[in-house]
Amino acid sequence: MKTSAVLAGTIAGAAMGTIAPKNVIFVVPDGLAPASSTIARTYLAMAEGDSTPSNPGIMPMLPVDALAIGNTFTHSANSLVTDSAAAGTALATGHKTGNGILGLLLDGQPVGSILESAKLHGWKTGLVVTSPISHATPAAFSSHVQDRNNFNSIAEQQIGFSHPLNQSVDVMLGGGRCNFWPNTHSDSCREDKIDLFGFAKEQGYYVAQNRSQFDDIELGKGEIRLPILGLFNDADLHYEADRKEQDEDVREPSLSEMTETALNALHRATHCKDKGYFMMIEASRIDHASHAHDANAHLWDVLEYNKVIEIVTQWIDEHPDTAMISVADHETGGITLPGGWDPRKLIGSKHSAPMLAEQYAAYEGDDKDAFFREEIMAPYGLGDVSDSDLAELKSGDVGANLAEFLSARAGIKWSTGGHSGVDTTLYAYAAGEMGEQLKVDLAGAHDNTDIPKYLEEAMGLDLEEVTELLRENW
Amino acid sequence: MKTSAVLAGTIAGAAMGTIAPKNVIFVVPDGLAPASSTIARTYLAMAEGDSTPSNPGIMPMLPVDALAIGNTFTHSANSLVTDSAAAGTALATGHKTGNGILGLLLDGQPVGSILESAKLHGWKTGLVVTSPISHATPAAFSSHVQDRNNFNSIAEQQIGFSHPLNQSVDVMLGGGRCNFWPNTHSDSCREDKIDLFGFAKEQGYYVAQNRSQFDDIELGKGEIRLPILGLFNDADLHYEADRKEQDEDVREPSLSEMTETALNALHRATHCKDKGYFMMIEASRIDHASHAHDANAHLWDVLEYNKVIEIVTQWIDEHPDTAMISVADHETGGITLPGGWDPRKLIGSKHSAPMLAEQYAAYEGDDKDAFFREEIMAPYGLGDVSDSDLAELKSGDVGANLAEFLSARAGIKWSTGGHSGVDTTLYAYAAGEMGEQLKVDLAGAHDNTDIPKYLEEAMGLDLEEVTELLRENW
């Protein structure tokens, strides 16, 4: 079959740049699978409604369900299965690159991102994530390094310490404190004395490192202004499954809380101005849970992503000069739901598997079996398993055992510990006529590199321009 | 998270029935997976272009890619994983029913289909498939039985021999002759003497049972009029992988050929009239190939489905009073594409696995190993495997062995021999303003039962009315 006549690598039928939003919100559910929404929706129907596997009824729609509009192709410049660095670079810059590379082409030359271009054109910018802020996806929008694991270099670029264009991110909320502390700090990951928190303060950043400092951003309202750097864990923020169980006064901010705070801060800084804001929000840890085949951690991070989408769509209804696009960078885990799968098996599971494995490893008491049954298995929804299963579960890698056991019970299958090559679903939302135009523009399938090109036109930006500037200062 | 405020079970944001097409084409790729398009697109890029796994480049778009617009939920009234009967009933009638049931609710009462309602309102109707015409999906649009395996009863209803509303299908093209022949015919599957081909002729049907009679429909043009019954195999039509290798003069009609012929016949019968046609086309055997984990048969039936979509979209551009919706009834096989998957391993594979297994079983010569290597493995793209692999391949279920071996080589993973519960992609197309309105109406996620409800409004039909008529005559 000849396909040469078929649209190749372009946004099908789109009149590019026909919308002109003042503000753009880009949400990346890292690793979200086609099956993820089916799991979350069905779980809610059974946990909160009277749906059962033998009488499912009509499912409630997730906030993101109604926003589906097409698909994206996710392969990278050097692999049919991308990693988050190459996929992030594609979504941020409109260029394919190799797995592991951030903001550079295969030849090592930098390419500018939609966030950097927005900043250059007078927009305010934000990154809100649950991974370290220097992790692949946020890094793809704000740094240029050969190796995604150069977290320290990435942090330096993100805060404007060593970025060719200086400071380009006005709000950063997430995890990853350790890359910002000098090696004199006990929790630092750095090998040098560079103090990026200190540098940030010198540059006028409000720096938050815990719940109360985070709350102050909202409480202080007009008092606390951009730029803002809020990092609430040395590494990743907790899985939502674990975070929601933390004591309230020390509980880490959730992705939806950080989203609201960032929206308010960016809105306060721009609502009287011509230029608005560009914000990238990443539900970072859906991916991590899928790598670990942890169905419960996956579920709760998918639900939290949907809470973010609900907040953003309500925000857009109140601020109709704003448009949102959401798309996963790739699928993780190769999740499928064969006959017999049953989301009710996830009801009662409170925590992530690795958190429980850690608690078990730390236990020094006398009755390991009782502790394992009551404090480890029960909180993972496995309070009713047999003694022989208990023995198997607590030998070897406890976290992996719990995850595989719960997945097997729920009939959720994973085909890989890595990513897969399937297309990801594209979601978009704007209010009124802009919303209708967005559907007409974005319906269909797109290479992942086409998304920032569409935003470039819609936002009146120039990615080539920022690429040239980066290369002049490289 | 509360979801009660979120749209439940309705077409999100749709102003129902805002399009008013004269003709509607509904295409069901049975069992099409989210991964199916990724496989087909990438195969084409590598078989026909210079794409490789380590340098994939920008992929060509499949004809269906550009038409993605949302998703559908596929669960049935009694299972999270539907079968084709319940899913077909949902798509045809707007009602959930139990697995295995066709055109009836769980209480045994019939519900009318969009095809039956169209017929009642003066539209011409068509069913074009590659399975037996009495198989679940076409049967859901044209019959009402408790058990999808009652193929003989279904055939009787479809031809108007025993349907409560008499004859409702004007064009039927596909397989399944055996249910139409009386038990006096050597290839009959009937246990009675009912001759449905004879009955069809009495009712004025043009009956075609082979390639030359099929060709006559086109050659005869205006001479051969509706109704038309063309069945070209006793059971399923061949997989496209096998059909394309048949001798030209006896080659079964392909799904795309039957589509063109049906479109022309329906167009000739309606183009001077107020009312147009409703046609359901099913790429039936994507599903069968996935049940068998036969990656090559799957690939070629997915490519043929895309050829049908290409023909239909071109037809619509020339006949802009026509709208198309396409959606899979469910996913089959739980297909995923983990890192390392390589579609180049499918290049050179000509046939389906079961056809080759049949040829091997029929071989009566002396050199079984040579025959197996040259006539079985080579045409399945496995000409280069080791002697020990050869020994393994030819022991036990040869067809299954070949399929699993090729899938493993290509790195294509299947998680089940049955269906899975993931959402399926919704595709739609119309030209010009109707096309834009269709995108606005259908963007988002929908329960599968919402699709015929949307068509009911768009076509000005009344599903309740036909249901009442059916019940009066039940």
TrEMBL record, chains A, B:
Q: Any one cellular component term from GO for this entry?
A: fungal-type vacuole membrane
Q: Which residues bind Mg(2+)?
A: D30, H135, T137, E282
Q: Which keywords annotate this record?
A: Hydrolase, Magnesium, Metal-binding, Phosphoprotein, Zinc
Asked whether the keyword 4Fe-4S is assigned, the reply is: no
* Any matching Pfam family: Alk_phosphatase
Q: Per its Swiss-Prot or TrEMBL entry, what cofactor is needed?
A: Zn(2+); Mg(2+)
| Molecular function in Gene Ontology | alkaline phosphatase activity; metal ion binding
Respond yes or no to whether keyword Repeat is given for this record.
no
- Residues forming the catalytic site: S84
Q: Which PROSITE patterns match?
A: ALKALINE_PHOSPHATASE
> Might you give the EC number(s) for this enzyme?
3.1.3.1
Q: Where is the signal peptide?
A: none
What the entry lists under CDD domains is as follows: ALP (cd16012)
| Cofactor stoichiometry and binding remark | Binds 2 Zn(2+) ions. Binds 1 Mg(2+) ion.
Q: Which residues bind Zn(2+)?
A: D30, D287, H291, D329, H330, H419
UniProt similarity note = Belongs to the alkaline phosphatase family.
Q: What is this protein called?
A: Alkaline phosphatase
The organism encoding this protein is: Emericellopsis cladophorae
